[in-house]
Specification:
Chain B: This is ABC transporter permease subunit. By secondary structure, chain A is an alpha/beta fold. Chain A has ten helices and 13 strands. A six-stranded mixed β-sheet of chain A has the order 5-6-7-3-8-9, sandwiched between helices. A four-stranded antiparallel β-sheet of chain A has the order 11-12-10-13, covered by helices on one side. The radius of gyration of chain B is 21 Å and the shape is elongated. Classes of the chains: A alpha/beta (303), B mainly alpha (261). Chains A and B meet through helix 2 and helix 3 of A and helix 1, helix 7 and helix 13 of B.
Chain lengths: 303, 261
């Protein structure tokens, strides 16, 4: 059984705005899926559709086999959600908040206490656990939301910009936690972000969305093949013979685009045999950011 | 699922008791209606028993409603005919304080979405919110009644030398009318709260629920409608039926999408 499936999923709001347009994709268990796109692209709407907060205008979706539009409570019992609009209670302490949500999820008091302690420690909130939420900083609130979403050991985790407002160290901590959960516990992660570099660090599969339309989806290698095959080879060399395909981009710096890695030895051999001295050779593959911009530019050109 | 609902009810109670502003609001109305107002009546009767209007009124009273002395008869009349209607304001006001902020309060604090992501249906959340406000309203009403009886008995005993006996009206009020009125108020206010965009808007709508009571109070004072036990039982039965219907039907059409708007 797939962890998450979307089939021609569309959502048009009552005002007429089409926020999600015919999205189809499926995710295996334990996958860390990066749902990437600019603000207003339709990421949050998709998360809401997957949690039954919104009813699709067309198509359908399922989470762990349950249709969220039909059985939202079943989906909620199996999933955890972190979004910027899902806050907790200021008049309760961090620990009280976690215990409250654990009891709503049906976790018994002893288990919830133990689980809350572990999560607070993992998210560096041990000391803040007994402080009221009203005294928390934005980053602390964000981390506590993460603990809240994990308190009932969900099988699917929906994270909408989980590291926005976090300092680099906390962001790294959260990343480690996400990665471990996916690897060790088989939790499926649906991560919405517009921070492409951050996504590239932890995701195993990606979906790029713009104006409600899924531009492309797949692993990084699949996206590279689809969008920008090959790599840019940068060579730092002296006395490079003339007549090669290399383009000079700076002092002793050359660049060329290759379709496959097999071309690299040939290029190096040509330089050396022509009397050149090579100091370094690096093959730069397109990053997620390069792929994203290539896709969005292509889309604009089509329009 | 009961555990989830209990957890939500407990959390809502805590929200009221830890909020000084709300808690004070919760105490003021019962204090005025069950301690200050009855005391003012008792003292007025005690210090001004020969008012000609009161004399005329007493002549109209049936023999059964008369106590030993003139002061005690008037005090008894106030206790058994006037105060029950004032008393009904308490469940409505108490309910409005907690119920008005039930959904819209969560929305303003950005906690509603978190709650909706939990494995509870909209109906269960609605019922928990209604139950929390209802239990609070009934607790405050009962404590207020006990406090009122204690203060009134104390005052009449020391000022007039005798104790007053609450009539069967009070039993009907406490067991049927007050819970039913409270449930109607809570259900309607929680429903309004689900649609409102701010707590103030929700509270303003709650004020309209007092209007039928004001008419009842006016009726009692002018003598147009003198509540006897049968009228009270009738009102109680109608209110209970209305409360049951509201509770069943009120939240039927609400969806997550409507609540998050």
């Amino acid at each position: 059984m797939k962890a998450i499936t979307l089939q021609n999923l569309s959502k048009t709001y009552s005002g007429g705005k089409q926020a999600v347009k015919q999205i189809s994709l499926s995710l295996e268990r334990g996958e860390v899926f990066g749902f990437l796109g600019p603000n207003g692209a339709g990421k949050t709407t998709t998360v809401k559709l997957l949690n039954g907060m919104l009813v699709p205008s067309e198509g359908n979706c399922s989470v762990m086999g349950f249709d969220p539009a039909e059985k939202p409570e079943k989906v909620h019992a199996l999933s955890g959600v972190v979004t910027e609009h899902a806050q907790m209670y200021d008049n309760l302490t961090g620990m009280q908040n976690l215990i409250f949500f654990a009891s709503i999820y049906g976790v018994c008091k002893t288990d919830s206490l133990k689980r809350a302690e572990v999560l607070l420690e993992q998210l560096n909130l041990e000391e803040a656990g007994n402080m009221r939420l009203s005294t928390y900083s934005t980053g602390m609130r964000q981390r506590l939301s993460m603990a809240r979403a994990l308190i009932h050991r969900p099988q699917v985790l929906f994270l909408d910009e989980p590291t926005s407002g976090l300092d680099p160290e906390s962001a790294q901590n959260v990343n480690r936690l996400i990665r471990n959960m996916a690897k060790q516990e088989g939790v499926t992660i649906f991560l919405c972000t517009h921070q492409l570099r951050y996504a590239q660090e932890i995701c195993t599969k990606y979906g790029l969305i713009e104006e409600g339309k899924l531009l492309a989806e797949g692993t990084l290698d699949q996206l590279r093949k689809k969008v920008k095959p090959g790599a840019a080879v940068k060579i730092y060399a002296d006395n490079v013979p003339k007549g090669t395909s290399l383009q000079e981009i700076g002092t002793h710096q050359y660049e060329t685009v290759i379709r496959s890695d097999d071309e690299i030895p040939k290029i190096v051999r040509n330089i050396v045999e022509g009397g050149g001295d090579i100091y370094s050779v690096t093959a730069q593959r397109p990053s997620l950011e390069d792929i994203y911009f290539a896709l969005t530019t292509r889309e604009e050109e089509i329009l | 699922m009961r555990d989830s609902m209990m957890a939500l009810i407990k959390k809502d109670f805590r929200g009221v008791t830890t909020n000084k502003h709300l808690f004070t609001g919760l105490l003021v109305v019962p204090l005025v209606l069950t301690i200050i107002l009855p005391s003012v009546f008792v003292f007025l009767i005690y210090f001004n028993p020969n008012d000609p209007d009161i004399q005329k009124l007493l002549e109209l009273l049936p023999q059964s409603a008369q106590y030993g002395s003139l002061e005690l008869t008037v005090a008894g009349m106030i206790l058994n005919f006037i105060l029950p209607v004032f008393f009904l304001i308490i469940p409505i006001m108490t309910a409005s304080i907690m119920a008005a902020s039930s959904f819209v309060g969560e929305k303003e604090k950005h906690t509603l979405e978190t709650l909706l992501y939990c494995p509870m249906s909209v109906k269960q959340i609605f019922r928990s919110k209604v139950a929390a406000s209802f239990i609070l309203s009934m607790t405050v009403s009962l404590i207020s009644f006990l406090a009122m009886i204690l203060v009134l008995e104390f005052e009449t005993f020391f000022l007039m030398g005798n104790l007053l006996l609450p009539s069967v009206n009070w039993l009907i009020i406490l067991l049927i009318v007050s819970p039913a009125v409270s449930l109607i108020a809570v259900t309607l206010i929680v429903r309004v709260s689900a649609k409102a965009q701010s707590v103030e808007e929700s509270q303003q709508s709650a004020v309209f629920l007092i209007i039928p009571l004001i008419l009842l109070i006016a009726g009692q004072f002018t003598g147009v409608l003198l509540l006897n036990k049968w009228i009270l039982l009738g009102i109680g039965a109608v209110c209970a039926l209305l409360a049951w219907l509201l509770l069943k039907k009120c939240m039927g059409r609400f969806t997550y999408e409507m609540l998050l708007k």
